[in-house]
């Protein structure tokens, strides 16, 4: 039996949860292999819930390829909606609380306004739409959920904007990066820490919460800082969204208001630049040791 079971354990956030749990000496947390924890495979899920009888389930499993989702709608919907619903149904059956991770992309983000949990959702991409459907499917079958919407995740694990910029920056003298999409980067290690704080808080104020790092910047600002902190000498050219063609549309302004999560769980949120520096130090250490 484990107090917590994590789904999507080998992804970026799942890896960060593993790291933070080990650093905080939490042993009562299981990270099952994907072969035994496919969120679309109900019989295996039932077996897992029956063995573990978890107090908490953390769902980091998702279809996160934002552009690919535009053409792979059914797979995105299966994983982001039906997968989330499967976990919620079993949570209801086994009286487990579900901590589910969602996204700023559930918002349209067409106004420069801080987004709170009660603001109207109106996704403009398949990824955002299927993530919203997942949120709604969870709320339909259980009340014992924490849905945590976050934005622009990066870390030393998996694929993310920081690692992409470092790779491209080392290959090229200049890069064009969008300047009119504003949001907040979130170090997935900070989010993992916050999620575990919620699970161990004993506070059952279920509902939807927003979490990102502090501050608000554009992808262009973020790229400039990544190169500055990484000491990579690449010129960054600011461009409007219209000059960077992608399959999926993305919100122009999706800065999340974190008041509710900070007040409810007494969580301290690091400033984005401080966390970026921590992450790049870790990435440098990994490169130097390899
Ligand atoms: N990345 C970001 O910038 C942001 C992410 N989020 C949300 O945060 C959460 C974590 O994201 P992140 O860790 O970055 O994403 P990743 O893509 O790194 O991880 C998702 C994981 O889910 C796994 N997975 C996919 N399908 C299934 C399935 N059927 N059963 C079990 N596991 C499955 C993937 O495995 P495989 O690789 O084998 O497919 C992968 O390991 C997601 O809910 C995402 O929507 C929110 C805002 C920003
Ligand atoms: C590589 C690159 C990207 N960009 C832009 C495209 C895009 O608008 C932005 C970020 O691109 P990415 O493809 O890395 O990130 P993207 O997949 O859009 O990131 C999103 O992922 C999902 C999962 C979320 O939930 C969101 O919160 C958000 O993090 O940067 C440039 O302008 N220049 C470049 O060279």
Automatic annotation (TrEMBL):
Pathway: Carbohydrate biosynthesis; dTDP-L-rhamnose biosynthesis. Residues 3-283 form the RmlD-like substrate binding domain. SUPFAM superfamilies: NAD(P)-binding Rossmann-fold domains. Keywords: NADP, Oxidoreductase. One of its GO terms (biological process) is dTDP-rhamnose biosynthetic process. Transmembrane segments: none annotated. It comes from the Bacteria. The keyword Oxidoreductase applies. The gene is rfbD. Catalyzes the reduction of dTDP-6-deoxy-L-lyxo-4-hexulose to yield dTDP-L-rhamnose. GO terms for molecular function: dTDP-4-dehydrorhamnose reductase activity. This is dTDP-4-dehydrorhamnose reductase.
